[in-house]
Amino acid sequence: MKIGSIVFAGLILAVGLVYEIMALNMPRGRLSYPGPGLFPVIIGVFIIATALGCLIQEILPRKKTGESPPTSPVPTQDSAAPGGRNVRKTFQLMALMIGYTLALKPVGFLICILAFLVIAIRIFGYRRWFPALAMAAVIAGISYVSFVLWLKVPLPLGILEEVLG
Amino acid sequence: MDLFSGLIHGFSVALTPMNLLFGFSGAVIGTIIGILPGLGPLGTMALLLSLTYGFDPTAGMILFAGIYFGAMYGGSTTSILLNIPGEAASVVTCIEGYQMARRGRAGAALAVAAVGSFVAGTISLIGLSFLAPTLAMAALKFGPAEYLAVALVGLIIMSRLTGGNLLKSLMMIALGLALGTVGMETVAGYMRYTFKQPLLAQGIDFLPVAMGLFGISEVLVTAEEPAGNMQLQKVRFWELWPTLVEWKRSFGPIIRGSFIGFFVGLVPGPSPVISTMVSYSVESRLDKRGEFGKGAIEGVAGPEAANNASVGAAYVPLMALGIPFTPAMAVVMAVLLIHGINPGPLLMTEKPDLFWGVIASMYIGNFMLLVFNLPLVGVFANIIRTPLYLLMPIVLLLCLIGVYSVNNSILDIWLMTGFGLLGYLLRRLKYDLAPLVLALVLGPMMERSFREAMMISRGDLSVFLSRPISGTILLVGAIVLAAPLLIAWIKPLIRRKV
User: Fold this and answer.
1) Distance CA B431, CA B272 (A)
2) Domain residues for A147?
């Protein structure tokens, strides 16, 4: 994860620099009457300083005695899972969410959520198509009744607007 | 309204059928998510935040209090029976609780955990009832300098206590503060970091950020973990009664855990988790039987009491000062903010129904949890069998619908997805998410306080140090920040002298 940490800290440093340049272009006012740019200027410096600190910390070789392993019996939330991780699922889920967001307005909530659920159920390891479709249809139906009909959430109906609207 | 008339008024609010229903629902939902690994109370509250839009704010607060307390109760069940902590605050309970279960004392461990949670919850609520109004009265003397000092020092203490790398935590605070500056600035109406997008003029809403960072990222992390096989131990109702010796051994740890949890809960940071670790550490040091690690009941009673006590205490700074010290309290605060209510010292006088109603509902919720958790322990434990392929898509579905329903905005879904990915990366790179979220919530208030303090003092920066309360608070912050450096510097000097 070291390269990942270096890239991430570098990215935040770049974000901090852009943020600071934009803040310097805002009216800063005086200390007795601060303008909208003063607080962002301070925060920009804070981001740059901490990102630089993280970057240096990641790049410099760590002293062997410096960081002792945690002695607490409590595992952190990031403990590596036994058996290894399946990063592919994360990418699939992210792609699925992006697809859902893009299709929501034109296609409509009901079709989108049905497709979303079927694919999500399969991503999470359930392989049989028909039961997955049946489960997705039931959940989509319940969510339509609860959110659209009962709670009156104006979810876009898309191509089903004329049928359901 | 004094304490007792306030509490009586609170009970009259909390005992209405609708509020009782919300309290009960919160307790059940909390217990369930406490049992299920992967979705903690914070993620659930973020998930349900959009739904509270349609509720009365008191009902929303009661629902969330039930969830928070319920999660602490539920977390112990699977820790003891399966060695699987439902949420982070129950990890310590696994150590002794599961060993007790292996020795056939699962029922006793569950009963002691439930009763200890109830006692500790009640003690912390008594503390909350006394302390919150007193602190609120004192906070009426606070000016902008004091508010800035409390928020700043709160963030500093949190960055020190989260247990991770200090620089990383500070970077998260900086990012959170930066996100808080996006949108139309309130004094001059100046647009900051909106990139000419009118939808960003209102700023980055807390809801998509919280749902993304805590809800979506939890699903993404869970998706990667390989599913394990679990063997659920059956516990019969008559086995739930500990022996007299076990009760005697649990009494001290429960009381100690209650006080540890309450005081740790007042400090910014992930207090439920820290309080369990402190309590476990204290109990293991007091152990004379050498039973720790082999199923010592003290190791269940103390930590389980501590995590519940910390929940009640976490409400003190929010209800009295309007400043959340934990991410969960930031979500609770959002319930009020989306209804246009600003929590703070005036909440008690301006909204007595809400202030006292919520506190009274916690007493009722705590009692409800004890009554239904113990007999239904077997039913609740079976919830863990819910397959992930069904649970996780439903969580995602609720996130997608929930975040859209607040502003009917596709932008909010994009923001949630983006912050979900960011949250996932931050978890994998071992960054703590809590400082980012708290800084986002506190940022606008800190900027407002800073500008007001500067205007009042005519640009004199020493105002933060010259005012006694803000000066003292900032001094505490400086000590907390510098303490490790000072210790590292002093230690070798002492060793050399020895």
Assistant:
1) 19
2) 87-164
